[in-house]
Structures are given as structure tokens and as C-alpha cells.
Design brief:
Blueprint (H helix, E strand, L loop, with lengths): L1 H14 L7 H4 L7 E5 L6 H17 L3 E5 L6 H8 L7 E6 L1 H8 L10 E17 L7 H11 L4 E4 L5 H13 L4 E4 L3 H9 L5 E5 H9 L3 E6 L25 E9 L4 H14 L3 H9 L3 E2 L7 H22 L5
Helix pairs in contact: 3-10, 5-12
Bound molecules: aspartic acid (ASP).
The site of aspartic acid has 15 residues, from α3, α7, α8 and β7.
């Protein structure tokens, strides 16, 4: 008798869990390919992380994760697309630190910038300060002097307001108290094409996209924005060594789903992410690009949510004191 009552209570409790009304949708997910929206152009660092990790997750899930680039407006167009997608697990978002700065930079958005389910953190990418290969500055100090002399004649490429490159560029201009001319693109892919062609002077962007061009001698690196030197660029000084410790920034990336996606799908996607982060091919390629996979305990929905909220709190006073808004 008691056992039957407990059984009935357990069934009632399960029925009231979030997502319990959608067990059919969650069951056997995914049954067809999953679209992964990257809110920046193809050929950039967020795109590279997405393609690598999606391929490994697809192997674990038995379905392809297909990357779709929806670049523009500093990553807000792609995020808006996912915010309004059906919460059925077939549309996911891979975004970076912009998820924490967009809620501060944009006071009016057509979507709730915090209204997503978190799946897990993926990796944090260091940033590099790079210049066109024929730039006169051979050191970071020379670059600082050049920016102070040229002011708005110095141009800085970025991926739009809300992008990581824009955040790093904002910090640089703020610390130097010198505004430069910023040139926004739909992502680092097209911005890098311009830097390689010598039409952009300076960029601050993830190692994911810069390391191979630096090693090929196609662009010059003057600093890394990490507290310690990077194994992948051991000769490059850190901004801390160069006397600018406040220019320290790591670009974290995470996976999201539209709000209301069933918990069972989120958990399955998160488990696939953790498997992908243990994949030898992912680990080896990440190392070549200066990235480290997040530890397994951070590639979870709860750890990701807590970190995201802490990042919003961390960046709010910084961006507000720089007086930077997109609208
Ligand atoms: N690195 C870019 C940014 O500045 C975005 C990208 O193309 O991945 O946010």
C-alpha cells in the first residue's frame, strides 16, 4: 500500500518537472541534423571553435550538427535568431563573451539577452594585439606611441559592437585615453582579410584566428592579453609585462538553446559537449590554436549559467565607465 502511494507520488512529481510535458520531443533527440548558429561570419575564431566542437558532438549524438553563420550587429542578429527559434533542440547557439557584454552595451534589443538555456562552457581563447605586416610599430610601446600620434587616423578592425575584438579595442582606447577609428565587420573572417591586405592597421582578436597568420609572417603580433605567456607564442610579451595589466581578457565560449528547450535535451547536449572536449582531435587542434578545453565540471548548464551571470556583473562597471553603448 505504502509502496503504491509512493509510486503514485513519484509519477505526479515527475509530471510537474519542467519539460516533462515534452517527453516525446526529448526522447531520442536528435532524430535529424541540428543547426548551430554562429553569430559571426565564416572563417573567424568563433566559427572555427563551432565547426571543430560540433563535428565531435555530432559523432557522439549520431546526427550532424550543422554550423550556420548569421553574422552582423556584433553577434546580436544570430542570437536573436536563436531566441525566436522553436525550443525543440534543433537550433542551438554558440556564442562567446559577447553574451555577457551585449546585455550592457545594448539597452534596446528585439530579444531578451539573458533568455537562453545554458548548455556548457567550451573554451576561453586568449587575445592577441596584431598589426598589418608593414606597420611601422615593431613593439607594443611603439604601437602605443603611434596610436597617440595618429589618433583617429589609426584604424582598428573589429566584429561590431558586442564583439570580443570590440571589447578589447574599447579597453585599449580607454586605457590610452585615445579614440581611434573603428571599422566593423560581420566577423573576424572578413576583418582578417582586410588586415592581411594592409587596409586595417590594428586588431585585437582571438589566437584561434591569428596564430597561424602570425606564424606565417602575414601579420605581426605585439602582445598577448593573458597574465602569463602562451605556449603557442612563447616570445610574445603579455600586456601585464608591458605595464598594461588592465588590458587582460579571455574570450570564453558557450553553447546555448532557446529558452524552454526541454531539460532532457539540454542534458544530452551537455553530455555530448563534455565528450567532445575529451576528444583527442579537438584537444590537439585547440592546442595548435592556443586554446584549452574547459574542464568537464564547467561544461555543464549550471556552471555555465553561474559564470555567465558573474561575467555580466564583472563587465557592467567597466563598460559603463568607458561610456560605451550601442544605442
Ligand atoms: N573574434 C570575433 C569577435 O571579435 C568574432 C568572430 O568572428 O569569431 O568577437
Amino acid at each position: 500500500m505504502l509502496r503504491r502511494a509512493l509510486f503514485a507520488a513519484a509519477i505526479l512529481a515527475a509530471a510537474s518537472l519542467p519539460g516533462a510535458s515534452l517527453p516525446a520531443a526529448a526522447q531520442g533527440w536528435p532524430q535529424r541534423p541540428v543547426s548551430v548558429i554562429v553569430p559571426f561570419a565564416a572563417g573567424g575564431p568563433t566559427d572555427a571553435v563551432a565547426r571543430l566542437v560540433s563535428e565531435a558532438m555530432g559523432k557522439d549524438l549520431g546526427q550532424n550538427l550543422i554550423v550556420e553563420n548569421v553574422g552582423g550587429a556584433g553577434g546580436t542578429l544570430g542570437a536573436a535568431r536563436v531566441a525566436s527559434a522553436r525550443p525543440d533542440g534543433y537550433t542551438l547557439l554558440l556564442h562567446h563573451i559577447g553574451m555577457a557584454t551585449i546585455p550592457i552595451l545594448y539597452r534596446r534589443l528585439p530579444y531578451d539577452p539573458m533568455g537562453f538555456e545554458t548548455i556548457g562552457l567550451i573554451t576561453a581563447a586568449p587575445m592577441t594585439m596584431v598589426v598589418r605586416k608593414d606597420h611601422p610599430a615593431k613593439t607594443f610601446q611603439e604601437l602605443v606611441a603611434w596610436i597617440k600620434e595618429k589618433k583617429e587616423d589609426a584604424n582598428l578592425g573589429n566584429a561590431g559592437l558586442g564583439a570580443a575584438s570590440q571589447l578589447c579595442g574599447t579597453l585599449l582606447q580607454y586605457l590610452l585615453q585615445t579614440p581611434m577609428t573603428t571599422v566593423p565587420f560581420r566577423g573576424t573572417g572578413p576583418a582578417m582579410t582586410e588586415l592581411l591586405a594592409g587596409r586595417i592597421d590594428v586588431m585585437c582578436d582571438q589566437t584561434t584566428n591569428t596564430v597561424e597568420h602570425i606564424k606565417a609572417g602575414a601579420i605581426r603580433v605585439l602582445a598577448v592579453t593573458t597574465p602569463a605567456r602562451l605556449p603557442v607564442l612563447p616570445d610574445v610579451p603579455t600586456t601585464t609585462e608591458l605595464g598594461m595589466p588592465d588590458l587582460q581578457i579571455a574570450i570564453w565560449h558557450g553553447f546555448y538553446a532557446p529558452k524552454g528547450t526541454p531539460a532532457a535535451i539540454i542534458e544530452r547536449a551537455s553530455a555530448a559537449l563534455r565528450t567532445a572536449l575529451r576528444d583527442d582531435k579537438v584537444i590537439a587542434r585547440f592546442a595548435e590554436l592556443g586554446l584549452t578545453p574547459e574542464p568537464q565540471e564547467r561544461a555543464t548548464p549550471a556552471a555555465h549559467r553561474a559564470f555567465w551571470e558573474a561575467e555580466v556583473a564583472k563587465w557592467r562597471p567597466v563598460l559603463q565607465s568607458a561610456g560605451q553603448y550601442a544605442d
